[in-house]
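Why this split exists: single-chain examples teach little about how molecules sit against one another. For that reason, every record in the complexes split bundles all components of an assembly together and asks for one structure covering all of them. Below is a record exactly as it appears in the raw files.
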Amino acid sequence: MTQLLDVDGMTRWIRTEGVERILLRMVGCLEEDFRRWEQFERIPRIASHSPGGVIELMPTTDGHDYSFKYVNGHPGNPARGLQTVTAFGVLADVGTGYPVFVSEMTLLTALRTAATSALAARVLARPDAEVLALIGAGSQAEFQALAFRAVLGIEELRVLDLDPAAVTKLRANLAPLGFRIHVARSVDDVVDGADVVTTCTADKSRARVLCSEQVAPGVHLNAIGGDCPGKTELDPRILERARVVVEHTAQTRIEGELQQMPPDFPVTELWQVLTGAAPGRTREDEVTLFDSVGFAIADFSALRCARDATLGTDLVHPIGLVAEPEDPKDLFSLVHAPVPVR
Amino acid sequence: MTQLLDVDGMTRWIRTEGVERILLRMVGCLEEDFRRWEQFERIPRIASHSPGGVIELMPTTDGHDYSFKYVNGHPGNPARGLQTVTAFGVLADVGTGYPVFVSEMTLLTALRTAATSALAARVLARPDAEVLALIGAGSQAEFQALAFRAVLGIEELRVLDLDPAAVTKLRANLAPLGFRIHVARSVDDVVDGADVVTTCTADKSRARVLCSEQVAPGVHLNAIGGDCPGKTELDPRILERARVVVEHTAQTRIEGELQQMPPDFPVTELWQVLTGAAPGRTREDEVTLFDSVGFAIADFSALRCARDATLGTDLVHPIGLVAEPEDPKDLFSLVHAPVPVR
């Protein structure tokens, strides 16, 4: 039977193992899968846009397992007490086509996005990076901070958000965990002295949360908020200066900061850097940009990571998603009510 | 919370309400949605092919509800005691992006495929049709028979399958329900005197289960087995003779019997016939063909039909698919373990 890792199971897994330990585990799964990138079927996500947001399906397969994620993005949700982004996902057996594992992925996506950011920063940021600026203090922010601490040892944060309550929340969550946190009053303030800048804002429009003059030489930019057509965060002049690394070029040209650049603008894919086929950071003063939109292969990694850690434990439970008649050609037997006596 | 209609709930619903009554209910939903066809986003399904079969995602939306179906097709499955086709699906709220209703769809797809066939036959078969030939006696066969009885009043069946056990099963299931059943020994035998011929075989190849000489004038063909690239059931000369009706032209040209014809081969879409924009059967002796591959809008109809019939009853139960932190920007609060005393 299909096994379900629901919100309760996911929460217990993360609380028990610990966010940072799971982030490191996930960085390991991501790196393994990015290194075998060419074994995966790379299917662009299927997006359905509406005035309030977007609903997407993100499938991929390595020929053995098949995965897809359902994910929405609705910037107006928090005002109604709802999440901007929620998600769930499925792993299936390619050999039989049967769904094997269903998981909540709101939390899992938060983990995989942060783990992917940190994995990219490991090869793109300066090795002596000590200060992380967070522009946007929403749901993703704490996971970013913990991933950068787990992978790069960063404990100093500078934070900026238009919503003061979000900043207060972030400080309340992270200060007790040992982070030093500076609450910034402006973009100039938040980037001052930062070695890595994560932009993670949710506006569904062409925003410029950062202009080129605000990006110092040697900075690594981790842009994760610009992730659908018409939604960007960066001044295009930053891209002209930067070494740009992406997950999957075809998708990022449509959805990422790249949509502001000509179609032949040169980029490197992260898997190429991880396998050594392309260099990571080449100079101390280079500006690097990970233009991250989230790709299905990272969700595949996150799902198998969660499956491997939870299958066989009481964190999961079976759900009746697949009809199983005794004779596979006799589906009708399942619904055939007893014949009334005539 | 998201509500789940699992196999147990689906089975109880169908047994309680009765297959034929649900088929009629579903024909109603399908007709409503096909009549407002142009309100739907028509996205071709996303297929992932492997040597053993195919896994597909089939999304659509009417701007209010969003639906997708996960479905596989693995012809080798029955030999391992597994279903050729299994499926599940989801309805979500376009306004918030939240998944609202998850349903098993192996049974539901069997119902919607049969209901769609009968709906198309209602406008394409001769009104005096009395005999249905079934080529292929697999999981879909009984549902076809019941749908044609519910909608067209047909009670006389002629059945052919390479697998004698499948035919025995079909007879055991349907004879007690009042059908008169002739077990045919050949294609010529099965089509002899048939007014409607349903082809529903599972081979993943270019098959010719029916050649043009075997199709009498006035017959309505309901071809549902040819439903992915490289998989067809009919002699192309049949298509040359027939009035061909499809669900969604762009998809059928890739996946249906139509893939054997030139790209400009003329077809009519079923919604056009149902709205009166195009005629149904025009002559007594016309050969009509519903080249059915299954389209996402029919799954949308089936899902909303099941949702409307089961929400608020004990047939469904809540599952924890969406994380719900008190503060929507504080997802981290869900996994934040208590800080140890220092």
